[in-house]
């Protein structure tokens, strides 16, 4: 029994330890965020990388998510004549859940992994040590701008995703499945409230924090050369995705 | 100026530095020689606070940095420049931006003045027309030169070199050695150089320190070391010569 506990406990201990180190990095980031020099130029550059450069993938995933959702709910609702609810169901699902979560997952794959790889490479080639020797704090110079950019840009990307998702759903529902356009829109306005959108955006900001924090953490703790960088990149995607799903549940439980 | 007192450092169970004592003279070139994997880089990183000792003190100009917080440590580090074993250039920046980096971070020079200093330092290390190149487009020797230019950009009082000539061809090696001696003469900075190349150590050093099994086992001028009758020092030199020639060619 004790042996079993040991066996099952070790990964758990490791996980808790890792979360502890991630929290420490977060605290240090927060403390550096309010100390000059403020790295606006780097923050803007990161906002471009996290935000602007992700618009393409977000447009595609958002649109198709909305489209497939319209298709699925239509077939479901048709069984009891509730086609008129397709629009509002779709809009609620997009703004509350699918917009924030899918956007965060896509950005994790694109941006979180790139952060881990970039900082990981800098770690193993001693560039982070070099920053330290030049009296520049790596958390302030590298981590803080990335996290700030992700927290700011994820809600923006999520709005885009919400919007094209609903537009995609409208296209499928109204143009292909011949739902009445007026009803489709009226039901959305009727049922979706501003709070649904806001809460979705708060989630998105939180996911932005998670994916950038984990990406940076895995990056600056990389050991073991090129192989280590590969490992850090993969682990950052896996850990971020898991934490996004877990926190999504709890955020939803608290908010709605 | 730099005093290391009873520095001990272990990684897991491996003791790399073992109650190491070393005093480094100001405004001189001190070369620390030792075998590959003997803890030379670890020792150098202690001097600039990148690694903290398990026990012992590192005194820089009267300040013990072994337990300093990050903020105070960063103040002390402004006295330093460091050239890393593989140069550690920022590969997202051009050569010019790399050399300009410490200037932009720690001075209020105008863009023009920064550019002027950058060109000056790059000329000093014998590089021309590379300002707009990326580090990945340079040869190993050129990267080291850029690393040196960056290390001395702020005219630091102390410059640390981790194997400045390893991996270079013989001609390049000689020219980097000459560059180091000339730069030190001009700047009057304290140079601490790590090497396993004993010939080059004897040529450039004012003082040579020998690192063996986690301790400094001998310190002296090149002549003192060379003519030492200590059988241990003799064997050490012979070992390094053998190892050196193996690595060199
Ligand atoms: N961060 C670290 N974690 C664990 N072990 C380390 C670490 N840094 C160095 N070591 C170990 O300490 C020993 C000394 O390493 P160091 O890099 O100082 O050698 P070196 O004398 O610089 O060798 P070289 O001439 O090859 O550069 C090695 O056995 C190395 O594995
Ligand atoms: Mg080394």
CATH architecture of the largest domain in chain B: 3-Layer(aba) Sandwich
DSSP summary, beta strand count of chain B: 10
At the first level of CATH, the class of the largest domain in chain B is: Alpha Beta
Largest interface: A-B, 14 and 24 residues
Biggest sheet of chain B: strands, sense, closure?
Answer: 6 strands, mixed
Q: Specify the biggest β-sheet of chain A.
A: none
Tally of helical runs of chain B:
9
Weakly predicted, low-confidence segments of chain A: none
End-to-end Cα distance of chain A, whole Å, is 41 Å
**What is the C-alpha radius of gyration of chain A, as a whole number of Å?**
21 Å
Strand percent estimate of chain A: under 5%
Strand content of chain B: 15-25%
Helical fraction of chain A = over 70%
CATH fold name of the largest domain in chain B: Rossmann fold
**What structural category do the secondary elements of chain A indicate?**
mainly alpha
The coarse overall form of chain A would be elongated
Low-confidence runs of at least 5 consecutive residues of chain B: 245-249
Q: Structural class, from secondary structure content of chain B?
A: alpha/beta
List descriptors.
heterodimer; A: 256 residues; mainly alpha; elongated; B: 249 residues; alpha/beta; Rossmann fold; 2 domains; 6-stranded mixed β-sheet; 4-stranded antiparallel β-sheet; 25% strand; disordered C terminus; binds adenosine-5'-triphosphate; binds magnesium ion
